[in-house]
Design brief:
mainly alpha; 12 helices; A middle domain of Talin 1; about 65% helix
């Protein structure tokens, strides 16, 4: 990862979203994210603010692409956790493999970075099973249709990881929010 200031969020570039009462500054927006009532909401709001509203990072992350050579380690961890969470919560681990094959290799280390080593181990095991069965994560993702995803999902079950993932939602979100709080210098230009 590039540990340069080029993708850190410059507070001078912060623009509040164009709806209801919004924080006027990046600092106020961060305070609001950390103050959200539910930890899952804190996580989502931090990802939206620090990744998707950061003009220097948004285009690098893209919808399904990862630019590890151009973002900080902290940005990679949060982006990977965000991509993993949005797909697993929507359609399970198979959907994450299918939609985000470029992100899969970063997910175990990102989970470990926030102290979720049990999930990281379960994910590594599932990645290995996918590779043994399909040849690669990219082969699992081939097909490009919901029918292809459903066919793969029938071949490989991810129950162990998914059960642990859903059962640990609160702890995982708390750990991710704490990671962001402790690594703000990896997101925001000081």
């Amino acid at each position: 990862m590039a540990e340069t200031n080029s993708t850190l969020f410059d507070p001078a570039l912060y623009r509040p979203p164009p709806f209801h009462e919004n924080p006027a500054t990046l600092e106020e927006a961060l305070v609001a994210c950390f103050a959200a009532k539910r930890v899952s909401l804190q996580f989502m709001e931090l990802a939206e603010l620090l990744l998707l509203r950061n003009p220097a990072v948004k285009h690098l992350i893209g919808v399904r692409r990862v630019a590890t050579d151009q973002i900080t380690t902290s940005q990679l961890v949060l982006a990977t956790l965000f991509m993993l969470d949005t797909d697993v919560q929507n359609g399970g681990l198979g959907q994450f493999f299918f939609n985000c094959p470029e992100w899969v290799s970063h997910a175990p280390d990102s989970l470990s970075a926030i102290g979720c080593d049990d999930l990281a181990t379960a994910l590594r095991n599932d990645i290995q099973r996918v590779i043994e069965m399909c040849g690669s994560v990219y082969a699992f993702a081939s097909g490009g249709s919901i029918e292809a995803l459903n066919a793969r999902a029938e071949q490989i079950e991810f129950a162990e990881f998914e059960s642990a993932y859903y059962a640990g939602d609160k702890r995982r979100y708390e750990n991710a929010v704490l990671y962001v709080r402790n690594h703000l210098s990896g997101f925001v230009l000081q």
